[in-house]
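Good day; I would like, with your permission, to put a structural problem before you. The record follows directly beneath this note:
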Amino acid sequence: MFPASRKVTVYIVTGAFIAGTFLILSQFYSADGIAQQPISYNAKPETATSSKVANDDTPEGVGAGIVPPVVNSPTTPVIDTPTAPAVDISYDLTTPPSVGCVDVVNRNRNQLTEIFTRELKGIRYVNMHGYLETENKGDAAIYTAQQMILASMGITTMEACRFAEGKGCNATAYRKALEDHKPYSAIMMAGGGNFNDFYWEDQPARIKTAAAYKDFPIRSFPQSIYMTKPEKIQQTFDSFSAHPDMQLAARDKPSFEWLQKHFGSTKVKHVLSPDVAFAWGDRSDIRKNIKKKYDVLILARDDWEITHSSKDVATGVGELDLGGDVGKVSYRKVDWKKTPTPLIDGVDENGNKLPGPAGQREMGKEQRAFAKAMNGFEMLAEARLVITDRLHGHILSTVLGTPHILMDSKLKKNLNYHDTFTKDCGCTRVAMDGMEQALEIAGKFFKANGGSLEKLKAAGEVGNDMKDNN
């Protein structure tokens, strides 16, 4: 039996999955319940080595019956090329960011859903590869979004490990789960940003898994790819190209071009897809229902990927002087990878142990990921403006419709994603020159929106930055 606190957690997560399922599936059905044909972004090369691309106007519909996954033909690798945004709104620094970005959120979610409805056809059971629990709220949002997509398609997650071979994973149970549901089982590799040769921990695990599980399909949620070392690229190519039924996914154009370059003449299927976190859909409800505590949230990395001067602003709570008519505004600066999530470990926000059943640690993967993701959403929603160099600071702010300023990281994954899928979002502005430029943009935002929270409260005003523009 669950204690009362666990029942609440389970009900919340179950409700989130149901809501996510409804949001994801609703695009495929009209008001009278008739299935609609999805828009195709699919393209197939004429041959494995041809650079010419022919449009495929007959994608498989959602209503097709479940069949075992089909092994890709070596001569017809399938690639996806979703339509890129046409307008560079977020590079316009003559105007500040606005509130709301529903059209962009819906487009990203719809493209994501269409792609994986096709890629996961025939699969009913999966083992997750790449499950990683840290305090990184972006990773938690990814995991929960992946579960939303899989649940919406009637796919059961059986085992979830960071590495399918070793390091805390029961390899016997992992393989048995797949064997028990053959031919409807597959390995699902998690999305994220660790398909690179810098950290070199997750990528060699993928290489090992692809070699050890050639008798099962492997599918992947979208990743940023950054590999530059020839010997490690060769290891990746040798393992992946030898697998008979493998699909890789890139979440930005440069990553997709890397896949085309290295796997374009192989049987490895490669797709370009929006980040999986867009499966959350429009969550402006969170932004609207959370009381604003700060004028600015600075969500900044605190690792080797930093490329700007955010360290000049102290971590914690304080004031920023934006000068001119705006003057001082309140801020909170955090790195959410290092910010504990309250309640799930049996302690309160101050680290004090909770009494009774609430003092027990939540053990469920889904429950823990959901709680951490929601904590991330709440951090972002507590501020009127966000400044961030984390990709999921940008993506979750877009999902919320929260005005924000995006800076890049050393691996370029922030702007690579933004330029591929979200550059037409009015709630984003890009600070190419780092923190100093971000604060200049922030000054324009507060000048256009009544100044600080303190000034608005003194004047009895709400501020037009609290209103949606869509």
User: Anything to note?
Assistant: DSSP finds 13 helices and 17 strands in the chain. Residues 4-26 form the longest helix (23 residues). Residues 284-466 form one domain.
